[in-house]
Design goal:
Helices cover about 45% and strands about 10% of the residues. By secondary structure, it is α/β, with parallel strands linked by helices. Helix 3 crosses helix 5 and helix 3 packs across helix 6. The longest helix is centred in the first third of the chain and has 18 residues. The chain starts with 15 loop residues before the first strand and ends with a helix. Bound molecules: zinc ion. The site of zinc ion (ZN) has 7 residues, from helix 1.
């Protein structure tokens, strides 16, 4: 049987191919995967709070966060919206340019639940919801570093997530 372009969970027509998982997913299971991955990062940090402030800059990442987390303007923990690309750039800047990282995945008052979520996943999510997707604007050097990361990702899917995990373990980000 040819299961190409079929969801590996339920066999329905595929909506998204995850290079990282090397699996096809239908819309329902794609959304479930994205949502549970973002929620599990919050759980793994052992934040007891159920509600958060959400940083809103109109980006796809912010829209997605508002979709899956309960907002409370009085919460002392803000969810911010940086993705695996943003943190990969920070790690590469540190190693290649010797520059101090700009962001951290988690601080006392902020957390980035999308640090293992990619822009292409957010783009697919937005298109499924028929919402406009705005690509994040980057500096020339950041775009150059992201190009390097994209090449690695193509040859070794999951490379960006690995770089971010290493960066976290080393306390860089
Ligand atoms: Zn499915």
């Amino acid at each position: 049987m040819d299961d190409k372009n079929k969801c590996h969970v339920c066999g329905r027509d595929a909506f998204f191919y995850s290079e990282y998982m090397k699996k096809e997913l239908c819309l329902k299971h794609f959304e479930r995967m994205l949502i549970s991955r973002a929620r599990s990062t919050v759980k793994s940090e052992e934040y007891k709070k159920r509600t958060f402030r959400i940083r809103d800059d109109g980006s796809a990442a912010s829209v997605f966060l508002k979709f899956i987390f309960r907002e409370d303007g009085k919460s002392s923990l803000t969810l911010s919206n940086l993705t695996v690309e943003d943190f990969t750039i920070d790690v590469l800047r540190y190693f290649i340019r010797g520059k101090k990282p700009r962001d951290r995945v988690a601080t006392k008052n902020t957390f980035n639940p999308l640090y293992t979520t990619s822009e292409s996943e957010l783009e697919a999510f937005m298109s499924a919801k028929q919402l406009a997707y705005k690509k994040r604007k980057r500096s020339e050097d950041d775009s150059y570093l992201l190009g390097i990361a994209d090449d690695v990702e193509k040859r070794r899917p999951g490379g960006m997530i690995s770089a971010v995990r290493i960066g976290r373990r080393m306390g860089i980000i």
